[in-house]
Every structure is written in C-alpha cells, then in structure tokens.
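Hi,

I'm pasting everything inline rather than attaching a file, because the server keeps stripping attachments. The sequence lines come first, and each chain or strand is labelled.
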Amino acid sequence: MKPIFAVILAAASAAVPAIADPLPSWNDTGAKARITEFVDSVTDPTSEVFVPVAERIAVFDNDGTLWAEQPIYFQMLYALDILQQKAEEDPSILTSDVLKAAAENNLEGVMAGGHEGLLEVINVSHANITPEAFKSSAHEWLTTEDHPTTGLTYAGMTYQPMLELLSYLRDEGFATYIVSGGGVDFIRAIAGDAYNIPSQQVVGSEGTTTYAVTDGVPALTKEGGITFIDDKEGKPVGIMRHIGKRPIFAAGNSDGDFAMLEWTTAGEGARFGLLLHHTDAEREFAYDREGHIGVLNRGLDEGPDRGWLIVDMAEDWSRIWSSN
Amino acid sequence: MKPIFAVILAAASAAVPAIADPLPSWNDTGAKARITEFVDSVTDPTSEVFVPVAERIAVFDNDGTLWAEQPIYFQMLYALDILQQKAEEDPSILTSDVLKAAAENNLEGVMAGGHEGLLEVINVSHANITPEAFKSSAHEWLTTEDHPTTGLTYAGMTYQPMLELLSYLRDEGFATYIVSGGGVDFIRAIAGDAYNIPSQQVVGSEGTTTYAVTDGVPALTKEGGITFIDDKEGKPVGIMRHIGKRPIFAAGNSDGDFAMLEWTTAGEGARFGLLLHHTDAEREFAYDREGHIGVLNRGLDEGPDRGWLIVDMAEDWSRIWSSN
Ligand SMILES: [Ca+2]
Ligand SMILES: [Ca+2]
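And the predicted assembly:
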C-alpha cells in the first residue's frame, strides 16, 4: 500500500501554493511589494476588499507598456515596410508628400504630417486585405524582421517583467486584456504567441471592415479608414464596449492611458493603477515629458497623489527583454 | 486500506463521462441527432475534424433564437415604457409623430416610421444615462414586467432547449457568444442571469458612449445615436472585431443571420449552421416569410442545400419556455 500513500502525499503537497517568486525579473523594491500586496488583498476570500474571479479584469496598454515603442510604434514601421513594397509595384499610390516621404523611409517627413500623416500611411498599407492575411503578414514581419537599434526581432522586444506580471495575474484568477491605441488586427497577430492573450481579449483601434461574397466565397476585407480610436478617452469607452465592465487593474505608460487609469481606479473597493516610466537609456530608452511617442506629463504629475504606482524601469526591473 | 480503495474507485467512476441526456427538452428527432453528432465529431481527438478548444467558438443570435421576439423585440417594448415615463415628466421630448405614437403606446404608428422610427424611440429612451444605470434599469424591467400575451416575465421567455444547447456546448469546451442586432448594453443586462454568458461574450449593436469627469467623478454616458449595427453583413464584421476569429457554430432565426451562418459554415473543417423555424403557434408564435420581425426567406430557401439544420420548434422541442 505504500505506493498509494506516496501518491496521496504527493497530491497533497502539490496543492500547497508554490512559494516560487512569480515576478523574478522585478527587483525587491517597493514596486514589486505593492503589486503583490494588492493581488494578495483582492484574492484572499477573508479580505475586506476581496474581488470574485469574474470581476478580476486587468487591462494593459501595449506600446511602451508590454513592448517597446521606439523609435516609433512598431505598427508604423511595419506600415512603412508594406507601403514601400506596394510603391515598388505601383508608384502611383504615392499621392501625397507624406506617402512619398514614407516610401523614401524619411521618418521626419512622415512625422511632419502629424497624426493625419500616420493614419494616411496606415490606411494605404493596411487596406484591401482580409484580416486573416493581414495577421499572417504582420506575424511574419514581427517574428523575422530586426529592430533598427537593438537587432532583436520586434516580437522579442516584449518586456520580461510585464510577461511575468500578466502570467502572475492570470494565475491569480485575473482575465488579462490588452487595450491599445494600436490596430486590433495588428496586435492580435502576435498577442497569442507573445503574451498568451487570445484574440478576444485584445481591444484596439479599428478600421473599416466589409463583408462580401465574391465568386461564391464569403470574406471580410479590411478597407482604408479608421472607425474607432482606442486612445485617451476612447480607452474607457472601448473597455465598456468590449468587456462591458470596469477593470480593477490598469497599466499604461503615457498620458494616452490617463483616462483608463482614472476610470479604473475611481471604482469602489481596491483598485490598481500602474504607469511604466521609461528611465533606462542604457538597457532600453529614456523618455517621458517630451517627444512624439509615449509622452507622459499628467501621469507623472498627478499619478502618485492618485495612488498610482510609477514603475521606474531602471530601478525596479532586473531584466528588460523577453528574448535575452 | 479498503476505504482508500473505495475513494480511488469513486474518483475513477467520476471520470467516466455522464450518460445523462444533455438536451432533455429536445425530442429524439433528426435535429438533436445532428447536433450531438457534430459536437462528438469536433471534440473527439481521434476525429479527422477535431477542433482544439481555443477554436470552439459558437455564436447565437438573441431575439427569436434564445428568447422570443413577438409582438416586437423586447428592447423595443422596454424603450416604449421608458419613453412613456420620460414623456410624463417632460412632454416636450415628443418632437416627432413617431415619438408621439410611442408615447400613446400606438405600436402601428411607431412601426409606420420604419427602421428610422424604431431607432428614434431607442435614441430618446436610451440616452443620457450611464451604462451601469441603464443595465440596472433593463434588468429590473426584464425580471419584473410581464409579457402582454404570455403573462411571463421577459427574462422567463428564454427557450429552455436553447439554454440546454448553450450549456451542452460549454460543457464540451465551446465558448458561447451572443451576436445580436439588439443593443449590447441591453443584452448584457440579463445575459449572465439568463444565459450564463458573461458581458465580454456579448456582441451587439452599439450606441455612442462618451467619457467625462464631472465634479471629480469619471463616468461613461450613453448618448443618442448608433455607431454600429450588428445585423446582416454587420454580424460577421462584429464577430471579427470582437472575437477576432471565425466561429465553427452559428445559430439564428432570420435572414438577418444569413451572412453570419454563411461565413461561419464556409470555413474549413466541420461547421454547423442552425436556423430556428418558428412553427409553433400554440406554444409560442408561428411566423417566417412575412411580417416586420424575424423574417426568414433566404434561409428557408437555401439553408437545407447549404447543410444548415432547420429546427422545427413544434416538432423538435418538447418544451419551449425556461420558466414553465
Ligand atoms: Ca503606450
Ligand atoms: Ca433574430
């Protein structure tokens, strides 16, 4: 009978919670302690701020929060590559100064067109394709092309500490969502492989998609044009549209996430707001109050008084990239 | 040692699949057999058409598929009640013939305004309220008001056989989604209680929602206006926007579901399309090719040749309502 006792004992010991550190790439600073204290408090059934599993919704911005966003959003670099391929086949598509600058890989010329210029490049490069073919193309690009300064693949430039945080929250019964200003199809191309997040848990900006039957084959087609921008005040709107309830945990890195953190942390009971502060010029990139990407002013000014955790990447993280 | 053996044996027998009928309110007709054969085929790992759990997406129309839709969509009856309450307080909101007809409960007068008339009533009755307060109001109405002809609560007019089908599919690893032309917030008000479907698995038509901070309190507000109609060709579009992948099972009851079934069943591997045919004037309502609600023509004409199952409610169901 001894083997049976051994099996029973092994089963019993497997039920004891693991004491392994769930966040090994986080230094033992206050940031890590605040995260684990929050998670402990909302998952302990005897706690006054206990939250049932169905309400454990955690939302994460993507660019600059789960992966890097320099020198410019990865989706923009992808769009430039695709635009250049298209222009080689048919130069007549370059109908504006912004598109011509894009075709010459002149990033300053593209940026000179402002937000509209970026959208123009996105529109021309992302149109007339099925969502399935688009995702396949984006996945290939993200996993094989190299980033200009790090030499890593783009998919390899996810942040290891944030992957651990996602995984830790899921282990504690949270549903983890991406809520990004980036295009929903672009993020879905890689969210499963990169973050273990299924497509239905990705909320993002949306373009016009149409349905038609051609030669007997029904298909969706991505057209030009943006129907929903999931940024700033659009983030709480997108969350309500898609998830239908207010999260209890929100993480971001720029003032584009301010409304999402504001709305999340204004709910009753225990709430958590996290802002990633890009302080590590050596291992990643250092930027905050100025520039054209990931600008963080109001969050730095008001976040601490609102009880939000400001994560100092240089101080709080022992490792940056998932890929090395 | 005998008690331990007994425990082990009990555990082993618990692992044997239950032989209880998962669809007790379905008669033993071909319809039930086709459903269970499909589910068996895609969930059997040795089957040629096996589908992994992550791809087992099932989508259901709501009005006329999961609950009744006569004499008119329940959301419309709710809107009329709210409009009448609002008009009592402030008659100046009745700015059109359609709204005046609605305030007098003159259903023909409202229908005379066509689709635009219905939207006008929805707009006025669903605006200037937070999604949370709206859902609370709709939940109260659906669970306490009585339907004009059956005397049941609206929440009690869900179809028992469809509840069993939802539950059966979930037990077999499917994720069950509602994909409805109705308003997403209205359905979310009751989807958890009525169908055991969480808010994030409800796709529907969407109205304008805005985010603002008033006196320090951040809140979302439903405004008038429709931003997305999740009907006809909008259903595959809504599914791709929200879920991000093609379902393998789709159920509906009208030609508003045709594109959803067409797109679902055109995918590779085993697929299932189901159309509910309202044939039971005695226990429910009988209607199909004519009228203003739930019109089904193309589905009846082409569905069988496309391999879709046409469920005959009178023949295939032993029970209709969940509530009696
Ligand atoms: Ca960001
Ligand atoms: Ca219907």
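The longest strand of chain A covers residues 202-214.

If the labels don't parse on your end, tell me and I'll reformat.
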